[in-house]
Amino acid sequence: MFASLPLTALRAFESASRLLSFKAAAEELSVTPTAVSHQIRSLENWLGVPLFERLPRQVRLTECGERLFRSLHGALLEVAQSVDTLRPQRSGTNLTISTTAAFAALWLVPRLGRFYARHPNISLRLDTHCEVIDLHQDASVDLVVRYSLDDYPNLYGLCLFDESFGVYGSPEQVTLAASRVPTLISVRWHNSKLYAHGWEAWCAQSGETWLTEQPAVREYDEEHYALQAAIAGQGLVLASNILVSESVASGLLLPYRGDIQVDGAGYSALCVPGRERHPPVRAFFAWLQEEARLSGLLPRSQPAAAPTGERIPL
Question: Coiled-coil stretches, from where to where (predicted)?
Answer without folding.
Answer: none
